[in-house]
Design goal:
- By secondary structure, the protein is an alpha/beta fold.
- It has two domains: 254 residues, 3-Layer(aba) Sandwich (Aminopeptidase); 196 residues, 3-Layer(bba) Sandwich (Glucose Oxidase, domain 1).
- It is built from 15 helices and 18 strands.
- An eight-stranded mixed β-sheet has the order 1-10-12-11-15-18-16-17, with helices on both faces. Strands 3-2-9-5-6-7-8-4 form an eight-stranded mixed β-sheet, covered by helices on one side.
- Strand 2 and strand 3 form a beta hairpin.
- Helix 2 packs antiparallel against helix 14 and helix 8 packs across helix 14.
- The N terminus and C terminus are likely disordered.
- It binds zinc ion.
Length: 593
């Protein structure tokens, strides 16, 4: 259990002074004595960016003509393979990326421990077949952290339909020795739209337009409820000595979850924290291709007995495996700015049913290539350029949160009993941010984690002050397709860990390709799905963003420091607005449970 220490900290109030600038001020760095103690992100920003177009051109040639991004891709995806957090493969990937970074000329290449994760796990083999009334070979893979079946097992299939707690009772005494199909058969619609698409101008314009209706977060609560119910079902299955569970694969965009593609991620686990020993799934679980699931389902619905045989062969390593981030640097050279940092990265971990090529091998090899390009060109950055390759992202951004917590700051989280049941990213903050001194020394973090698509622009993460800066940066990149600046705060990637503590953190807008239709968390997320031209473009563009951030006089402007502890209060409806409303006695919130 975590102890949220409430440290008293003086947090810097970030106030932007809208003072008019003289021409002299604009051309000088922060030498003004009144401003000299302030971090440069607080000072007024110059109207014009000093772009080194010669360096733009050199980066373009190195990144586009001499790209080595696919060499890194094959090394990581083919040579190392799936990289589930806690697994020996991920540890190898940490070491391999560290060694590659050192070999290309980076300094200080090392691994940083972000803390204990849980169980190490590896899928050795999984097969599933129908033995009667007909024989058939099915497409399945073990759900992550599924236990072994300890050899081939055979049993009658039974479809279990549990939508609410009460449904569980009707299966008591009926599940011993059975192989359980858990979950409804879903619609399998024809794939009549392309699985691989480029974002057209209209869609890109939509991405730039700010959504006026906020996205509902109800699906998170739904998902949590479903996992909780599944956890209860799992207990029943274990106590009844069922042999194994088969789950149908979910669908993807444009009906991509068919035709041999299965999605194998946290949606395939029987409850929360299946990577922790105390929450281990009590019996083997496999995810099955929807067409295979459909056949067995229809036979069972028609009261035809079905025998299934399966063998789930998985291996567990330690129960207390730690997670590591790979870190390396190109040291800054300006005596005044070398302690300041710009970071670039992506997550190195993946799911385990394929080699995690687009999620997020792509962002990893792009970040490696960014560092290779800058090393090859022997840039002498004014600020230090640092790469961070995170792990544990798929289970809740653990690696980047851990790094940010250690170096930059964190929000203390509520330790109320109902809150402790939730993963950290859903827990309520219990006090203002705790900010460390290094937080003032990092200009920005750039992330690629939306697949293999080229960079079409950047999300500002609701930091409008970057707009005039980035729009000048992308002007010479328009011919590469970089044109969009969206004010939106995009979510779901490691840039959020930085943004959460007031550091400018950015995820690029990427072309969509077949990411959400076919590759994201699927058994088809392989090297073949990577688009070499797109990745070379992404590395070139990201290298230029990183270089510009390292070279400009000031750090990038910031949003005011977040106050997560005030969010709930700020979102609460206004009181005493409705004329004529009478006061009603407040019911105790716990009574409704
Ligand atoms: Zn990812």
């Amino acid at each position: 259990m975590r102890n949220a220490k409430l440290l008293s900290v003086t947090t810097t109030l970030l106030i932007y002074f809208a003072l008019p600038l003289s021409a002299a001020d604009k051309s000088k760095t922060n030498t003004n004595s009144a401003d000299s103690n302030k971090p440069s992100y607080e000072l007024p920003q110059p109207a014009k960016e000093n772009l080194d177009l010669n360096m733009y051109q050199q980066i373009r040639i190195e990144g586009l003509t001499h790209s080595h991004v696919m060499d890194y891709a094959s090394g990581l995806m083919d040579g190392i393979g799936p990289r589930l957090t806690g697994s020996p493969n991920l540890k190898r990937a940490n070491e391999w990326t560290r060694d590659q970074l050192a070999a290309m000329g980076c300094s200080n290449a090392h691994l940083e421990d972000w803390g204990e994760f849980g169980m190490g796990w590896q899928q050795l083999n999984t097969w599933t077949r129908m033995a009667s009334p007909d024989t058939a070979v099915f497409i399945t893979q073990a759900a992550p952290w599924s236990p072994s079946s300890n050899g081939a097992v055979s049993g009658q299939a039974i479809w279990v339909d549990v939508k609410k707690d009460e449904d569980i009772d009707k299966y008591k005494g009926k599940l011993g020795g059975k192989i359980v199909l858990l979950g409804d058969m879903r619609d399998v619609k024809p794939v009549d739209k392309p699985l691989f698409e480029r974002l057209d101008d209209k869609e890109l314009a939509k991405e730039v337009e700010h959504p006026l209706t906020p996205e509902s977060r109800d699906y998170i609560m739904e998902y949590m409820k479903r996992l909780e119910l599944r956890g209860k079902v799992a207990q029943l299955l274990a106590s009844e000595h069922a042999l194994a569970v088969i789950l149908p694969s979910r669908d993807g965009r444009n009906n991509g979850g068919s035709g041999g593609t299965i999605f194998v991620d946290s949606g395939g686990s029987l409850g929360w924290y299946s990577y922790q020993r105390e929450h281990i799934q009590p019996l083997p679980v496999v995810i099955m291709a929807i067409e295979n699931y459909g056949r067995v389902y229809r036979l069972l619905k028609a009261n035809v007995p079905v025998t299934i045989e399966l063998n789930v062969d998985t291996k567990f390593f330690g129960d207390h495996e730690h997670g590591f981030d790979t870190i390396a640097e190109i040291p800054g050279t300006d005596p005044k700015l070398k302690d300041e940092v710009v970071m670039v990265g992506g997550h190195l971990d993946s799911w385990a049913s394929a080699t995690g090529a687009t999620d997020n091998g792509a962002g990893t090899v792009v970040a490696l290539e960014v560092m290779r390009i800058l090393n090859t060109l022997q840039v002498k950055p004014r600020r230090t350029i640092r790469i961070g390759l995170w792990t544990g992202e798929e289970q809740g951004l653990f690696g980047s949160i851990g790094y940010v917590k250690l170096h930059f700051g964190f929000a203390p989280l509520s330790t109320a009993p109902d809150q402790m049941k939730l993963p950290e990213w859903l827990r309520k903050p219990a006090g203002p941010l705790v900010v460390k001194p290094e937080q003032q020394k990092i200009s920005a973090y750039f992330n690629v984690d939306n697949g293999s698509g080229k960079i079409l622009g950047v999300y500002l993460q609701e930091n409008l002050a970057e707009e005039p800066i980035f729009s000048q940066w992308i002007e010479p990149l328009k011919d590469l397709g970089v044109s969009a600046i969206s004010v939106r705060d995009t979510s779901g990637t490691d840039h959020e860990s930085f943004d959460a503590v007031g550091i400018p953190g950015f995820q690029f807008i990427q072309d969509k390709l077949d990411y959400s239709s076919r590759t994201h968390h699927s058994n088809m997320d392989t090297y073949e799905r990577l688009q070499p031209g797109d990745l070379a473009q992404a590395a070139t563009v990201e290298a230029i963003f990183v270089y510009n951030t390292a070279m400009r006089d000031q750090m990038l402007p910031r949003k005011p420091l977040p106050h997560p502890e005030l969010e709930e209060q700020r979102k609460a409806p206004l009181k005493n607005v409705m004329p004529g409303a009478v006061e009603v006695e407040q019911k105790d919130a716990t009574e409704n449970k």
